[in-house]
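User: structure tokens for Titin-like, please.
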Amino acid sequence: MFLSVGLMILTIAIGVISVNGATYKKLGDEAVLSPGSMPNLITSITWKHGPDIAVEWYGKETFAYREFKGRCKLDFNTGALTISNLTVKDSGIYTAEINNRVMNPTKITVISAVPKPTVSKSCNPEMTICTLTCEAQAITGVEPVIYSWVISAKQRVQSSSNQLSIAKLWVTLP
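Assistant: Done. Predicted tokens:
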């Protein structure tokens, strides 16, 4: 048999995935938002979540507001904002203002963890074509789902489909 499920490993990355400009983070993880290039000396930092101020710093004191209290850290050298213990409410557009200069916005989307999948295999009688199917318990809040199939640790195929078909290649030498 040319194909074994042992050689096929399904990996589901639950880290940062960049899709169409959005950064996806797992519920409960942390996000580090970087404002981009900074001036040599930072004297003030304000991060907004949508139109509302989330965190601000003016020289000596840092103020976090609403749901951001106790979950945010500012890097005073780079202007980066770290948000820990992410919730779905943290999804949205964040904009930094460094020394009263508005920086490029960053969008994050917080999603639930993907449940552990099962992979099943079906082959034709000749064992020349096999289809692998990945299935998991359906839950809301995990979109978009991207399937990453790894073959022999060398080839990776990413797809929005939960099926992967593989055909046996016949090689004849003269």
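User: Anything notable?

Assistant: Residues 1-20 have pLDDT under 50 and may be disordered.
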